[in-house]
Amino acid sequence: MTLSEIQQGESSEIEFKRELSKNKDSLLKTVSAFSNGGGGSIIIGIDDKTHKVVGVDEIEAFKMMDAIA
Asked: What is the C-alpha separation between 46 and 38, in angstroms, rounded?
């Protein structure tokens, strides 16, 4: 995803998450909505309000992958 695409913001097929919260309900609602529609992508590490790339720590990324799985 390019910076210009990020600056365009979220859409019906793109959702930004700054981080995975301890409460997984928000993520699960988005996954459910995408699976009931035409699909989509959840991009973690981008602030959904400012569209600023905040990134994800490498160790945190592996923890997130385990938590999602």
From this structure: 22
